[in-house]
Amino acid sequence: MKSVVGLIESKLMPLAGRLAQQRHLGAIRDGYISFMPFIIVGSILLVISSFPSDSYKAFMASIFGEQWGSTIEIPFNAIFSTMALFISYLVAYRLAERNDIDKSSAGILSLSCFLILTPFSVDAHGAAVIPMEWIGSKGLFVAMLGAIVWTETFTLFLRRNIVIKMPEGVPPAVQKSFAALIPALIILSMALAIRVFFAATSYNTLHEFIYSVIAMPVRHFGTSYFGAILTVLSISSLWSVGINSGSMINGILRPFWMDNQAENLAATHAGLMPTHVVTEQFYDMIWMGGSGATLSLVLAMLIFARSQHIKKMTRLAAGSSIFNINEPILFGLPVIMNPIMLIPFNLVPVVLVTIQYIAMASGVVSTTTGVYIPWTLPPVISGFIVTGHLSGALIQLFNLVIGAMIYLPFLKVLDRQYQAAEHPAEHHGESSHSLQSHKKVSNG
C-alpha cells in the first residue's frame, strides 16, 4: 500500500496540480459553476411540475388550472434549451478573467462567433430561425471550444497592441470598446470563414463536425461503465493524498454528462423512460457523505467503534456527512494518507458504481431523469428526487449498507490501534498475562 501511495504522490500529484491550474480547464469549470444555480432552479421547477404522483398533479390542477405544469416549466425550458449560449459567454468571461483582459468584450465576442457558426434558416417573412438543438446541449462543445479559441485570439491581439488607440482623456469604457474593434472585426471574419468552409463539406456545419467526430466518441466512452469506474478511481485516488479532485474531474467531464442529462430530461418531459445511465446525478447517488461514500464509514463507526477517538470523530462528523461534507472524516480519522483506510476508500466507490450501474442498466432501478440537485442534498432523498422513483432511494440504502460492510474490517483494525494507544497499560497487562500463561503451559 505504501508503494501505491508513493506512486500517487510522485506521479499523480504533480499531474493533478498542473491540471487544476490549467487555465482553459479552469475557465470551463468556473463557467459551468457560474451557470449551475440557474440549472438547479430550472430542475426544481421541473420536479414540482412532474412529481410522480397522480393525486398531487390532480390537486395542483384543481388550484392552478390544467395548464399549470406547462406554465411552471417555462423557466426550465428557457434555461435548458439555450444553455450553449450562456456557456459560450461564461467560459470566455472566465478565461478573460484569468488572462486579465476585458471580460465583457471577450464574452460578447465569443457569443457572437457562436451565433455566426450556428446554422439557421430564413422563414417566409425573411426572419432568421435558429434550430434549438444547436443552442442547447448539442451545441456545448462548439460553445466551449470556441470560447477558448476566440478569447485566446482576442488576448493575442490585445497583448501585441493591435488595437485602435484613443487619445488621452477618453473615458476607460470608451477606450475598451474601441480597443475591441480591430480584434472583433478579424475574429468575426474568421468565424464566418469557418462557417463557409464547413458549408462546402459533407458535415455542412462546424456543429455537426464537432458533435459527430469528437463529442460523440468521447462521450460514449466517458459515460460507459468503464468510464464511470475510471472517474471514481480518479477522484478517490487523488483525494487519497489530499487533493480535492471532485471539482477538477467534474469540470472536465461535466460537458459529457450534461448531454446525457439533457436527453434524459427531454425523455422525461415527453413521458418516456430516460435511457442514459451515467449522468452527474448518477455520481451524486454514489458519493453518499462525500468522496469515497464515507457516510458508509460513518455508519460503521457509529455502530462498531470502541475507541474514544473514533467515537468523538463520529459525533463530530455525522452531521456534516449527512450533507455530503466529509473533510472532518478525511482529515480527522484520518482517511487521507492512512494505508489502512485508503484501501476501502478507493474500493467502495468501484463496488457501488458496479452495483448501481447494473441495477439501472437492467431496469431494476430507475435511471436518473436528468434533474439537477444541490450536491449537499442528503442521500435517500437525493436518490428519490433524481430518479423520480422509490427505487432510487432504495438503491442508496442498499449501497450504504454494502459500503459499511466493506469499511468495517479496516475500521476495526484502526479502532484497535486507537484503543491500544488510549489504554496502553491494559494492553500491556494483557500481553504480559498472555506471556505468563504461555510460560506455564510450556513448563507444565
- What's the helix count? 21
* CA distance, first residue to last residue: 43 Å
| Helix amount | over 70%
Give the amount of beta strand, in percent. under 5%
* Biggest β-sheet: strands ordered side by side in the sheet: 1-2
Task: Write a concise synopsis of the structure shown.
This protein has helices at residues 2-21, 23-49, 54-64, 68-72, 74-80, 83-99, 103-117, 140-159, 172-179, 181-199, 206-222, 225-239, 246-269, 280-286, 294-304, 308-322, 327-332, 339-361, 381-387, 390-422, 424-443, and strands at residues 121-122, 128-129. The protein is mainly α.
Task: Write structural notes for this entry.
- There is one protein chain.
- The chain has helices spanning 2-21, 23-49, 54-64, 68-72, 74-80, 83-99, 103-117, 140-159, 172-179, 181-199, 206-222, 225-239, 246-269, 280-286, 294-304, 308-322, 327-332, 339-361, 381-387, 390-422, 424-443; strands at residues 121-122, 128-129.
- With 444 residues, it is mainly α.
- The chain has a two-stranded antiparallel ribbon.
- The chain is globular, with a radius of gyration of 27 Å.
